[in-house]
Every structure is written in structure tokens, then in C-alpha cells.
Design brief:
The radius of gyration is 17 Å and the shape is elongated. Helices cover about 25% and strands about 40% of the residues. α1 links the parallel β1 and β2. The longest helix is centred in the N-terminal third of the chain and has 13 residues. It is an alpha+beta fold and about 100 residues long. It has one domain.
Length: about 100
Amino acid sequence: MNRCWEPAELTCPVGRRLLVLAPHPDDESIGVGGLLLAHRGRCEVHVVNVFMWPSNTNADEAPKIAVRNGYNLLSWGQNGVAYWAVSDLNAEELRSLQRLL
């Protein structure tokens, strides 16, 4: 029997929270899906999709938070770039992440 399609057991350190930054929806499942699966039920798993593109203006825009379909959306502008971060993280956690980016 061919076993190449059976998932290997992953041994990795497990903390209390796992945060995945993904530049595009579905990249978290394609890129680190096995890691997410290994942590399922062992810790909090959160995915943040971060989108960025050239802004129509070079002016910085203050962060704005919105809620869509149960997800928090944080948008802001900085140095001529528009950003969106979408996640199940709460608004304050998204703002903390935004300050790191």
C-alpha cells in the first residue's frame, strides 16, 4: 500500500497561541495547513490575512475598525500604502499587530 498520502506526525512545541499571517486567503491552509492541523485542540489558533496595495494618496490614514461576518477588519494608510488586516482576533489585538507592521 502506498503511504505517501498519509500525514506524518508532527512534533513541534505547542504554546498557548498560534498566529499565522497570510498575504492572501487560503495561503494559511496551503502554506502551513499541517502545522495548523497539528495544533488543533491544543492551543488558540488565529489567522490574520493582511492585504496591502498602493494608495491613491500619500497621506497617512488613522486605523479604522469594522466588523464583517464575525471578523474584525482593521484598515489604515501609511507611506502611500493602504493596508487591511482581517481576523478573528479582537480589535485591540489587531491594533497591536498593526503597530508592529
